Amino acid sequence: MQLLLILLVVLGPMVLATSMYKLKFWVPEGRSYHGAMIGNGESRADLGVAGQDERWQLLVSAPQACTEDCQRLVYLARQIQVGLGRDASRASHALAAAQPLSADYQALLGREYPQLQRYPLDAQRYQQKVVEPGPQLWIVDPHGNLVLRYDGKVNGKHVLDDLRHLLKLSNIG
């Protein structure tokens, strides 16, 4: 009887864990991130963005002209980087635009966003990969892999929470 109890205590959790894994029951469905997870190993280059950076990056993609939503995301990306505090040096912000920016907006970016990296965006390649219209905000890891995607109406606090969590878990960048 005691031997049976010992075997049950030792083997019971292993059998339960294996059956939970194999049969996919009792699996938690909660998540700790706010954006759309990009889990298929796509890179910045797959989107049609030629730039590279060895830090975490907040990348704003503008497949059309950079209008209000795009400009809001560029502002938000800078504010999120500043909001990282002591970890701000581990991240950068960038804009990948398919169309040339207006002269006024280019002047504003040069004045107000001196650290903003600017890249050309291959609109045809981008639209093959991304079905959502309008500008998007992406978190890109130091290897150039896309991690999370947010639409133009994202709450900056959610992106900041996600990026802080990624920086906390990551030893790279």
TrEMBL record:
Listed InterPro entries: Thioredoxin-like_sf
Domain of life: Bacteria
Protein name: Transmembrane protein
Organism: Pseudomonas putida ND6
